[in-house]
Amino acid sequence: MRARRLRASLKGWGGVATMAVVCALVAVFALCVPLSGPGIGDGRAVTQASQATIEKAEEDCEAPEKQTLSPSSADGDTIQAIKDREGEKRKLIVGVDQNSYRWGYRNPNSGKTAELEGFDIDLVHRIAEDILGDPDAVQFKAIPTDQRIPAIQDGRVDMVVRTMTINCARIADVAFSAPYFKTGQQVLAPKSSPVKGYDDTLANRRICTAAGSTAYSTLEADQKDGKLPATTDISTTVPNQLDCLVRLQLGEVDAVVTDGALAASQAAQDPTVQLKGDAFTAEYYGVAMKKDADDLVRRVNQILVDYRKDTAKGWQASYDKWLSATLGKDAKKSEPPAPQYLRST
Prior knowledge:
By secondary structure, the protein is of the alpha/beta class. 35% of the residues lie in helices and 16% in strands.
């Protein structure tokens, strides 16, 4: 019965969306980092276990998007170690998404290899070109939302470029670049739904979020503070954000909460759903790296400065190619403010 409902819900999606759902369902068999460790698929367990750490980090943190190092083109120990990799291993190892339409996804129409494409992927190629002299000198590792930080800390990747919000809790565990994109949390629901946005219409509704995401921690905090109805069920969490869209299609949840930039891409995949209400937070995506990789952080920040200045093949060109169709031609609302850096030491 469920299989029939899923097939029916996918009618009219088109090749890219169908591909995305298949990737979401088989991601653990693809090139993903192994799904091991505590809290997989259970955002509540992760959040409860680290609540004290999160609260302490938030107390000591202001404007997390400004907690980054000044730009530099110099090579340090981290960058030199990447350059010293031999032969086929001489690549930048980057954690990405392979299921987020127009951000990081496998386009089945791009040829037999179905290479990763999207806004985040363009940035990865630019970083690889600057550090290694070859935009294709990249080893991509697809990782679920709640494995982004562990993958960095364990040394499985050099960095993560995966629509990752810079926030106070995360800067206690990893270092971030300056912001490269501005977004905010929004509600996604069927067009026919009585849900109107992030308000009382979510009472007695089931919401899906990605485990370990900013969306989940925001919902939990708002429900605790009375900003979200107590009857709203936020218990449904999934490893990858696209899985929420599948749950919504199956009727297992009533709404999805995620970054507006991602929600817009999901709405483009499925014309039966839409964004409901305005964004209710202001957030910034950054490139995440190890805490002690100062030279790599500085280098990425220099790359971002140059990337934003490059009108031909830089930030704006990538936005026009991948995101203008879903977020609109005016990129100003998505472009982060001029970066601010910590004082050099």
